[in-house]
Amino acid sequence: MIRDVISNDGYVISSLLSLLIILIVKKINRRRFSDLIRLFANSNYLRIYLKEHRFLDIFDFILFLNFIINCTTYTYILYGSFINLIEINTNKFAAISIAFTIFLVLKLILKLLTGYLFDLHKTISILIFQQVSTINFIGIMLLPINLLLVFGLNFDIRWIIISVVLIATTILIGMLKTIQTNLNFVLSNFLYFILYICTLEIGPYVIIYDQLKNYNYL
Q1: What does the alpha-carbon distance between residue 144 and residue 114 come to, in Å, rounded to a whole number?
Q2: Distance between CA atoms of residues 186 and 15, nearest Å
Q3: Do 21 and 59 meet the contact criterion of CB atoms below 8 Å apart?
Q4: pTM, entire model
Q5: What is the DSSP-derived secondary structure letter of residue 2?
Q6: Of 15, 209, 188, which Cα lies nearest the Cα of 93?
Q7: Quick one: which of 168, 177, 167, 172 has its CA closest to 144?
């Protein structure tokens, strides 16, 4: 099967924008950026920066934008590989990015409200910091993955699947690291932890999947 030839200009622009953001973040705080890159190699990042963490500080905020850009680009790659190869459209790219942002911010706010409601705001804040750190790490990781899939591997479906497994594994490792860090809390509140996982982590994705399926997007 011969693929349609499309312009990759959109992927070039999104990749350059992501690279610019990463360079800015590295300039803002080189040491913290270096520690974030080694997030899963040791516990230095979570141990050091949790103490001085503020709700979505400038470092996290800029890297969150990087994640949104690369996640949206990766969504285009997945769509182009499994459904139909398309060019990046500015309006649609912005719409998908805004949708991702609203979804993640609403999840974040809901977690904070849950923490205050059940007097667990300190623990929830720690969980949020660890999850945001994982998201930022994945955002950085997606830049070379997107470049490789588009320009090096030409949307090769086998490598697309490998990239999905790699990202899913990274998310799983991040979750396990979070559980390990808060193991005493998890064990002493196991029922609430399971409820948290089902309602705030898995539930939103199930709802989105059902909505997309009902409206024949899947």
Answers
A1: 36
A2: 39
A3: no
A4: 0.86
A5: P
A6: 15
A7: 167
Residues contacting residue 128 through CB under 8 Å, at least 6 positions apart:
108, 111, 112
Taking all residues of the chain, what is their mean pLDDT, rounded to a whole number?
82
C-alpha to C-alpha distance for 78 and 74, rounded to whole angstroms: 6
Question: Would you list the domain boundaries of the chain?
Answer: 9-181, 183-218
Does 204 or 39 have the greater pLDDT score?
39
Token digits of residue 30: 């080189």
Q: Which of 42, 24, 218, 69 is nearest to 133 (CA)?
A: 42
Identity of residue 44: N
pLDDT in tens, 48-87: 887 766 656 889 999 999 999 999 999 999 888 887 777 7
Structure tokens at 216: 């024949």
What is the separation of C-alpha 15 from the centre of its chain, rounded to a whole number of angstroms? 16
Beta carbons of 99 and 217 less than 8 angstroms apart: no
Question: What are the structure tokens assigned to 167, written together?
Answer: 């990202």
> Rounded distance, CA 87 to CA 83, Å?
13
pLDDT given at position 218: 43
CA torsion sign, 135 to 113 to 181 to 27?
A: positive
Q: For residue 28, give every residue at least 6 positions away whose Cβ sits within 8 Å of its Cβ, in sequence order, or none.
A: 58, 59, 62
What's residue 2's pLDDT?
45
Whether 46 contacts 181, CB under 8 Å = yes
